[in-house]
Amino acid sequence: MSRQGRGSTGPGRTAAMPSHDYEPAADVQDLDDGRLVVAFHGDDGRRRLFDVSALPLPGWHTALAAAVAERTGPGGGLRTFAAATTGWGSLGRLVRFLGTLPRPPATPGHLTPAHLDAFHTHRARTAPTAALRELGEARMLFTSSALREKVSAEVLDHVQRRLPAPRDAEAPAGVGRKRGTTGFSDGELARLLAALRSDTAKIRDRIRAGEDLLCRYRGDPSALDDKNRETGRLLEQMAATGQVPIPPGTRNPLSPERLELAGKLFLTLKDLPPLMMLAAALSERNGETVKELPVRHRVLEDRAVELVIVKRRRGARRWFETVTWEIGAPGRELHTPGGFYLLLLELTTRSRERCGSPLLWCLWRNGHSARLKTADADHVAPFENSLSCTSLLPTVWAANRSRPLLADPQPDSTGSGGMSAGLPLQVSFNRIKTSMEVRRTKRMGGHLPSAAKSNTMQVLFRNYLSSDPVITSWAEEVLGEALVDAEQAARRAHDQAARAAGGGPRVLPGPGDAEALAKSGLDADTARRTAEGHLDTGWTACADHDRHPLTQQRCQVTFLDCFHCGNCLVTRDHLPRLLGLFDALGRRRRALSDEVWWQRYGPAWVAIRQDILTKFTPAELQQARAEQPHDALLDLVENPWELP
Prior knowledge:
Blueprint: E1 28-30, E2 36-41, E3 47-51, H1 61-72, H2 81-100, H3 113-126, H4 128-142, H5 145-148, H6 153-159, H7 186-219, H8 226-241, H9 256-262, H10 272-283, H11 287-291, E4 298-300, E5 304-310, E6 320-326, H12 337-347, H13 349-355, E7 363-364, E8 379-380, H14 394-399, H15 429-443, H16 448-451, H17 457-465, H18 469-500, E9 506-508, H19 514-519, H20 524-532, E10 541-542, E11 568-571, H21 575-591, H22 594-612, H23 618-626
Parallel strand pairs: 9-11
Antiparallel strand pairs: 1-2, 2-3, 4-5, 5-6, 7-8, 10-11
């Protein structure tokens, strides 16, 4: 193939082809030692051989190897090292279980639904949380083209049934529904970020000081004092060979002095927790994505960094995402994701030159403790072969700092009303991710379409927001403020309508007979007609139905608007119907959104609650509650198409 680059193809120009025949390596391989293996090469660049011949039931081996190759191949669903290893583990447990049965199925054609039920029962008893997942993997395996024709139709129908998750009450003891990870409180997150930036700044200053000393030694060794000259000589040797010598005065290659010397030019294992957690917080990505940050990137006008990151569990061929991270102003690299990424490139340069990894995280490890024999083997990309090969222990880092991180004090469990001392802060990448998702959602005002960044809205709410106490408290606060604002708006609407219509309802507490009403200020005729009920409307009485105070014409408004009208009369006899309406409005509130309910019923509800019911004694209200009618007649004042 002679042509290279983007210009090697074009309209009318055939694509360059290899000069010799290309034969892809077979996924299923028969090795010279008699083993039957499946070669896996994932999209994450990791490889593994799955030894099918080590499983029982030899009559299954050929079909299983083809099925595993299909599941882990380019078109399969297991395209990372972790996913393929998990799927292989589920397959191995199924086949080994079948091999222990008194009458095991010798070939796939002998498999029956009873065998699968027995396996599900066994896994539900030994590993309840993994039983459904392993049956799901069995479904994908048996429905693959390599096995579909070799198992019976009954088995295919059986594995494709939906198995409901067990209810909490039916689950075995100690097994319950998985709880979501809760984030940090505002105080805990502020202390954690401050500690991460502090430790990162120390690492940055340490390596930059070592580089500066090395540069001065190379420029003029005689200008340095004896101590710095000797240290510069050692740094020169480290930079040239990549090997960390044993400092003078010590013979132990595992001595702290040698580790301190290595830290002057290279990152070490103990530097990983603060650096990786700060990267997770600034980028708002999970720990898996941070572990696989690439070296390849592009700087856009010195303002942003563009790179392709890995986001797992998004479906086949959807794991890679192009992101653009802000660089920020000089000196602010600990506050912006792009600036911090470039800083990490600077700190890992020397180790990356030695190990040649395409991943960002490259560091020095003590080869003597790992029993390595070459100097370059001291420099390693810890997550190149597996994401779980290096233990970070973020909680241990938080507890072993010179100033340990503590959780917020909690109320004393003794009931004394005091606060217990803060316990060590439990730190994890999941808690950091949850906290950053919560803060971004709050910045977006709770608008999930805008807050969803690396997950769907459903995943964001279910896995990050629904169980977090910070977002719950914030949502309750926002909801409370919204309700207060809605009530105040309804109150203003009622006051405005009441002023325009004569001042609002006239409430006449006390007895409701004609004589008592006349003493309250009504003329004799109006008092008599009110007492006899001739002026009653829906829930109150109207002093002059033919002359509305606002229009001076016959009243045309709904009965709900009577509560803002100066012609409205309310006596003790109206209380039972008013209480029935008040309760009906409350029930209607549960069926409508707050915005619709406050707009439609809010002013009337405010008038009843604040202008009418407060004028009567508790005894009068209690007596009216006993006489409250069953039907509040609320439906009579609305058109049928407006009902919820």
